[in-house]
């Protein structure tokens, strides 16, 4: 008889019992069940979501400025140089006599009074300026005790310019 050659022995896989198959099935079902988002995830705002996805987000560099914004407005700093108004001379406290002399020699007031004498109409600003200056002259004259002699009829008709100039 010829010698029968034996085939190498295969490792036998043991068949799983019904209980083992059931437990593996349940585990697969649990893993499938836990895929996806948790319940109520759509209603939660993005600030509550943490962990996944927030670290890898790319922020658009064009949005926003890195320049700090001052909370208290200090000096105006702009790209254009601001047009400065001419600085008003420092108001020096003059004595009443010096102020009266200055007002009597005021060229603008003289020109406006001359125009009034010639029956020209003045603008509202010019009228306001004339009234203000004449009132100031009256108060200064009252402070200094200077009074206009209005006893004579001639002096009443005298020109206001001549009174101011002291002629």
From TrEMBL:
* Ranges of biased composition (kind: Basic and acidic residues): 16-28
Q: Pfam families attached here?
A: YihI
One GO biological-process annotation of the entry reads: ribosome biogenesis
| Origin: domain of life | Bacteria
The record's annotation in InterPro entries points to: YihI (IPR007336)
In this chain, the stretch annotated as Disordered covers 1-99
Q: Does the keyword Aminoacyl-tRNA synthetase apply?
A: no
The UniProt keywords, alphabetically, are: GTPase activation, Ribosome biogenesis
From the UniProt record, which GO molecular function terms apply? GTPase activator activity
Its job? A GTPase-activating protein (GAP) that modifies Der/EngA GTPase function. May play a role in ribosome biogenesis.
Similarity section: Belongs to the YihI family.
What does the record note on quaternary structure?
A: Interacts with Der.
The protein's name in its UniProt record: Der GTPase-activating protein YihI
